[in-house]
Design a protein that fits this description.
Largest sheet: 5 strands, antiparallel
Structural class: alpha+beta
Mean pLDDT: 96
Number of domains: 1
Shape: globular
CATH architecture: 2-Layer Sandwich
Helix content: 10-25%
Strand content: 15-25%
Low-confidence stretches: none
Bound molecules: adenosine monophosphate, zinc ion
CATH superfamily: HIT-like
Number of helices: 2
Number of strands: 5
Order of helices and strands: HEEEHEE
């Protein structure tokens, strides 16, 4: 996708602060962190959001999950914990139309997800 900012990050056309990378997945620090630790975990395949996953893409979710665990260990929050959020569609406020998972951590978060 030509004008997708995350595809540009994957291609190296826009710099990013990489946390984890493998063949299918990239994780990098959010440019505008909402919590002390805020990592974005994305598939390298351009999929707009969760509703656009086709059955043939479902295996990507396994890879996302494996990457979430690796990132959590890498940033040292596997014990203290973290919150994982994926915005999908207009009501969620999704801004970047390339599916991504926000791993938020590094502080005690309130019980409410929306704030
Ligand atoms: P969302 O609102 O779920 O679409 O979240 C998009 C996220 O991408 C926001 O938290 C932004 O701060 C983040 N973001 C946008 N551009 C960049 C970039 N070039 N590098 C890192 N994070 C970015
Ligand atoms: Zn993209």
């Amino acid at each position: 996708m030509e004008d997708c900012v995350f595809c540009k990050i994957i291609k190296g056309e826009i710099p990013s602060d990489k946390v984890y990378e493998d063949e299918d997945i990239l994780a990098f620090n959010d440019i505008n962190p909402a919590t002390p630790i805020h990592v974005l975990i994305i598939p390298k395949k351009h999929i707009e959001n969760l509703m656009e996953f086709k059955p043939e893409d479902y295996k990507i979710m396994e890879k996302i999950l494996a990457a979430v665990q690796k990132v959590a260990k890498k940033v040292g929050v596997e014990e203290k914990g973290f919150r994982l959020i994926a915005n999908c569609g207009p009501d969620s406020g999704q801004e970047v139309m390339h599916v991504h998972f926000h791993l938020l951590a590094g502080e005690k978060m309130g019980p409410k997800i929306v704030h």
